[in-house]
Amino acid sequence: xxxxxxxxxxxxxxxxxxxxxxxxxxxxxxxxxxxxxxxxxxxxxxxxxxxxxxxxxxxxxxxxxxxxxxxxxxxxxxxxxxxxxxxxxxxxxxxxxxxxxxxxxxxxxxxxxxxxxxxxxxxxxxxxxxxxxxxxxxxxxxxxxxxxxxxxxxxxxxxxxxxxxxxxxxxxxxxxxxxxxxxxxxxxxxxxxxxxxxxxxxxxxxxxxxxxxxxxxxxxxxxxxxxxxxxxxxxxxxxxxxxxxxxxxxxxxxxxxxxxxxxxxxxxxxxxxxxxxxxxxxxxxxxxxxxxxxxxxxxxxxxxxxxxxxxxxxxxxxxxxxxxxxxxxxxxxxxxxxxxxxxxxxxxxxxxxx
Amino acid sequence: xxxxxxxxxxxxxxxxxxxxxxxxxxxxxxxxxxxxxxxxxxxxxxxxxxxxxxxxxxxxxxxxxxxxxxxxxxxxxxxxxxxxxxxxxxxxxxxxxxxxxxxxxxxxxxxxxxxxxxxxxxxxxxxxxxxxxxxxxxxxxxxxxxxxxxxxxxxxxxxxxxxxxxxxxxxxxxxxxxxxxxxxxxxxxxxxxxxxxxxxxxxxxxxxxxxxxxxxxxxxxxxxxxxxxxxxxxxxxxxxxxxxxxxxxxxxxxxxxxxxxxxxxxxxxxxxxxxxxxxxxxxxxxxxxxxxxxxxxxxxxxxxxxxxxxxxxxxxxxxxxxxxxxxxxxxxxxxxxxxxxxxxxxxxxxxxxx
Lengths: 354, 354
Fold this sequence. Notes:
Number of strands of chain A: 11
Strand order of the largest sheet of chain A: 1-9-8-6-5-4-3-2
CATH architecture of the largest domain in chain A: Alpha-Beta Barrel
Order of helices and strands of chain A: HEHEHEHHEHEHEEHEHEHHEEHHH
Organism (chains A, B): Fictibacillus norfolkensis
CATH superfamily of the largest domain in chain A: Aldolase class I
Shape of chain A: globular
Keywords (chains A, B): Detoxification, Flavoprotein, FMN, Monooxygenase, Oxidoreductase
Radius of gyration of chain A: 19 Å
Protein name (chains A, B): Probable nitronate monooxygenase
Number of domains of chain A: 2
Helix content of chain A: 40-55%
Family (chains A, B): Belongs to the nitronate monooxygenase family. NMO class I subfamily.
Largest sheet of chain A: 8 strands, parallel
CATH class of the largest domain in chain A: Alpha Beta
Oligomer: homodimer
GO molecular function (chains A, B): monooxygenase activity
């Protein structure tokens, strides 16, 4: 049902991870393998999106999705931003890059990003960080685009459905990267996938995609048993050959254990799950009034994290990963998709024969 | 396999919840229905355990288990305990019960509890809050008793197995009540069931019981698909007819939503998941140096929580519940067990036919 709706073979979505992992090769190969590849375009300029989509469309005729971040309003005292900028200069000095003494201009590219995606003929768009307004949903529906959005609680899922969203990703607390939470953000409930999915399934009538802690066919089988119509995997796709994730990041995932991740606002000003490192610990000690909010903190730390990744310094990068990252493997995207499907069937059969 | 090991019909364990819910009627009826009933004896005196086991054995010949808390060492300044005691007197005044001005004697009943359980012929004993030592495991094995213990991380599970434990309960972050964490307690990773279970299954060779967020047959099916050999449910059994949980507590569960619970040390000094209320918020503001550790804080707040429960004052009780408590129903224990099995089969079949 979800497969015919999205015109894919297997009920598997590759998460639209922003910041580089979702290369055109990854997105295209995931879709070629029968799942849904997603371009993580949250931080991309309209021009970058246009180029990436052109490359993807040269590699595959299968459906793909684009993920965008809904715009966030924020307030921050200049004093706080400048103090953070100054503190971050100690990192820049260590990395040997230019210090920065002012606050960057924050331009919101959302409307232009969205226009580019529609223009390029993409037929599935997913959103994170908020409920797309009815206006946005109607606009996309008018272009026959399917709208996906992320919820981390039943209340958020209900709001997404009432705004007209076609598919809801129920993101459990296990998930790596940014939390999609948009209601009661300062007092998050961190609901685990096992508890969240059946409650969301009961509360909405549109199909639900389970996300968070799913790394293999066992997780896929579990999610479908909970009532999800499909699964979304992020971390599992980070270590595949086509992924654009940094090698340090891939290595950290492949050697990780279950207790290595933590939810932090340190890197971006918004809660996200990643591996603990020195920069996380240091910046967390400044949380509260001293930490600029998302997306400002994201922009402030951005040059440092990019340079650290380039230098292979894992103590100054953000390395997003979910709580089951230890199950990741090096393989091709196609191999991951095919293994998910095969193991899922085996897991269901084994469970039935218990 | 786990069923023949425990001599039960269905791979379902009722959690050994301490403090009253596991009445002899509940334990016996769960076992009569083909699952494993468990007496939550953590806070019971040896005499109370003896009486309860006698009642249970009059009601059923089927196997039952007893859950005990492994003894905890702790340190607390008298000043801290007395300050808490004084603060708690404001609660006692509101409830109209006697103020207390000294610190109760803490006697550790563990060895006597264990001796009572062995003496009574119980054949399955489960432990929480630590790894039972090899000495304890050997002692129980010598009496042909199966040993179960709880882990909240892969590392804990590996330690339990190396100590000789026969069955490991993998408790995900969704679970209600006390966390079984015993390693790295101050920096808990809060691993969700979906991520924890497959990683524990891969790391140990003994059977794994999934716990946390499982409320119905969908959750049971999901847990089995993840590789668990059985499931353990706590919250789902709190609202059954035979449960000894307070009516206020039952009502809170039945009317709850997914975001109503929180992990807190407020009531007992040890992390546990329960419904947010005024006492939790008030005592949490004292966490740090000012909150006595478990089991002292448990004992200090005990009279207040009991009296509040009696008076129907839900703002001064601890009401443990998991993140999927909203799925609870009023029914008999037998009906719950039978529904779990039937729905589990349906969920697996539906997932297979996706």
